[in-house]
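Work package 3, deliverable 3.1, input record:
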Amino acid sequence: MGLLVDGRWSERWHDTASTDGRFVRSESAFRQWVSGTREPGRGGSLGFIAEPGQYHLYVSPACPWAHRVLIMRALKGLETSISLSVVHWLMLDHGWTFETGPGVVPDPIIGARYLYNIYAHADPGFTGRVTVPVLWDRRQDTIVSNESSEIIRMLNSSFDGVGAARGDYYPFELRGEIDEVNSDVYEALNNGVHRAGFATTRASYEEAVLPLFDTLDWLEDRLAGQRYLVGERLTEADIRLFTTLVRFDSIYHGHFKCSMRRLVYFPSLWAYTRDLLQTPGFGSTFISNTRSAITTRATAPSIRPALYRWDPSSTLRFHITALPSPLTRNSAA
Ligand SMILES: N[C@@H](CCC(=O)N[C@@H](CS)C(=O)NCC(=O)O)C(=O)O
């Protein structure tokens, strides 16, 4: 576990000493944009143009941010036009690697041993965290983006003129509401599970975990009366919520101490998660040997060891006791 400093790998975990124990996520560094026209892409001067075969993705199946991208790639039928590398499930001293292991798909671009080789290839003086997902441009030999929320928007519409499947998951008329829901879900839940899991003080842990469960209550009410989060159709808001929910009971409840209640005790949220799991593009991108985890809480071999062996979980190292399920919330939980 570490980061690149001036293009050189340096082993260190997130600094929580300067943030009163809070986990503060770094901003993604590469923010160029693939567009469907010959206009220069948003946020970049190079102009990345959608072409089948030109782009490559780096993912980890354990990662909820990468999972968003895998779902959108599947929904838009882009599996053959955007190729894929999969890192080893275990992230230790060198960060994500391409060591031989179950499910690993090696790097075809430079034959990288470590994912940080890819970042350093794109920017030899790069300083920052080396994260998945990464969208790579073969033609310009560089990283387009390492920000999942933006990669899914590119996949949603930029490849429509070059063979992507029909479907708009960020429709114009729903954008305002999608953005609002995304923002609440991101803050309290998508990032909230990590803020709870990586907190190094009791106060910062509670600051994350209490709003997290309030947000689950709010979502439970909202989904009691509607099938999808926004409007009457599947949108990117559902994709973004799903990748956290589908890992909740098997990973976040125990490992990140989000243990005030299990997802199975939220009837609408639980039904929603199972409904989406059966939706094409969702279940198929959730690696098969982890599927049983959401129905039985059985071991999920490809995700759980990634977190338990790597174990930067500050809740364990800093001896923060998980908040239990208050009787007033749900006595069965
Ligand atoms: N904002 C990024 C976050 C990506 C991210 O944090 N990925 C994690 C895996 S779930 C990672 O690669 N972490 C490695 C690190 O922080 O060193 C996105 O949404 O794409």
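The first strand starts at residue 2 and ends at 5.
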